[in-house]
Each structure stands twice: as structure tokens, then as C-alpha cells.
Amino acid sequence: GKMHNPVTNSGGMLIGRVLEIGPSFPDQGLKRGEKIATLVSLTLTPLSLEAVERVDLETGQVEVRGKAVLFASGPFARLPDDLPESVALAVLDVCGAPAQTARLVRPGQRVAVLGAGGKSGLLCLWHAKKQAGPGGRVIALEAGEAACEAIRNLALADEVIRADATRPVEVLEKVERATGGRLADVTINCVNVPHTELSSILCTRDGGTVYFFSTAVRFTAAALGAEGVGKDVRMMIGNGYAPGHAALALETLRQSPALRRLFEERYAREERQPTV
């Protein structure tokens, strides 16, 4: 079996202990019993589940008993000793997004992050602010008021806008006001619901870049939407892998104590002996 989210068409990832290492598996110093996180989608990971023991609706994390197969081509990360297991799981699940943001954003640029209040959005905001520097401008767009307030408290953005990313005209008008009509140089889409393609395209200037990290995005809607509104933007599919992405994401929490506290408040729970 596989893990499949019918809304986003993604599957998350897992943490557990190594049961067995195949004789042809690349030598990376891995040992039996070592705790690791797989960094490849569960839509691609063979799973055999014996039991589902706990479903956490607040964090989207599920405790199970079973086995999984990680192929030699599948990246993984050793779990850090200085972060709660559930927090590390939350961070590593989206570690491709901050890594790509750090690559894309340049000093002095205007950056818009849609879905800024979720775990990927928050990490992207931190790296966008770091990369854009004092001459840049980072705009956070988020639908939930509580999430907007959290972003303000963390000072992760120059402007926080409450907006529904499924309403393109509303998003365009608000970003126009925030940028004096210049729009964003780079737009990062971290929204986990469909129908946000055109909002991302419209709030980006001609010649700018849209990075679709959200797997709820439909290629046809993005491609035909840009064509339909006559927008010349570079659109990137959200590759969840980049060299060093796991280490970079975990280091973000170490460098930002305030962001780490928020992740611990949201995702830390009483740790149990892993059974996956």
C-alpha cells in the first residue's frame, strides 16, 4: 500500500527505526535500530501497516505499527538529538520549500508567500527575509487571523495580509497596494488547497518567478491561467528535494528561537517509543 492525500495528491513522509539494510544499499554508515526520517513522499514508499494507533488531527501526524521500504535512491535524514521527534517530523516534511526559497530569493527583492502561516510558509518567510535583506520586502498572505497574528509576533514579514488565496482579484489588489503596484519579484505558493494558481501568477510581476511548492496546484490551471491573463512569469514546480535541504530546515529552528518555540507549541507532543 501507499499513503495518498486526495486533496493535495501528496503523501507526507515517515520516521522510524531501521529494521534491516539490504546488501546492495549504499554505505552511508547506517545501522540497524537507528532512527531516521525518510525524505521521499509516502506516495512512492511501499507500506505494510499492522495497526493505526493514533491520529492527531491538529498536526496531521499518525502513529502506526508496520514496515516500510526505502529504496537506495530515496534520501533520508538521521533524527536530531536536540529537537522533539514530532517537531523534526513536521520540519522535515516540508524541508524542500525553505531550501528552494533560499536559492531563489536575491537581496532587495519583493517576495510574496501565500499560505504563509503553515509550517512550510513560516520556514519560507524566514529564509525570504534573510535572503532579501534590509533592502527587500517580504509580504505574508494568510487566510487565518490567528496565523496572521503569529507571523506578526515573529516579525517574519514586512507586511502581513489576511487574504483568501483562492480569490485571485482580491490577492492581486492587496499585493498591488503593498508593493505600490510593482508586484512581487518572487512568489512562493505554500497553500494546501486547490485553485490558488491564478492568485500566485497575478501577484507576480512580468519576468518574475512563481514557485509552486503546494502539490494541490494543477499544471493546466497554472499554464493556461498565465496564458489567459497574458502574464510572462517563470513557473517552477515544487521539487521537494535539494541538496542539504534537511540540514538547512532543521538549522532554521536552531537559528530562530522564536520560530522554534512556535513549532514546539504546535507539534511537540509526549514522545513514545517509535514502532514504525
Short description:
The chain is an alpha/beta fold and 276 residues long. Helix content is 33%, strand content 22%.
Summarize the structure in words.
By secondary structure, this protein is α/β, with parallel strands linked by helices. The chain is built from nine helices and eleven strands. It has helices at 85-92, 96-104, 119-132, 145-154, 168-179, 197-202, 219-228, 245-255, 257-267, and strands at residues 15-17, 35-38, 47-56, 61-68, 76-78, 110-114, 137-142, 159-162, 184-189, 204-212, 234-237. The strands form three sheets. The protein has a six-stranded parallel beta sheet with strand order 8-7-6-9-10-11, sandwiched between helices. Strands 1-2-5 form a three-stranded antiparallel beta sheet, with helices on one face. Strand 6 (110-114), helix 3 (119-132) and strand 7 form a beta-alpha-beta unit. Helix 1 (85-92) crosses helix 9 and helix 2 (96-104) packs across helix 8. The radius of gyration is 19 Å and the shape is globular. The two termini are 15 Å apart.
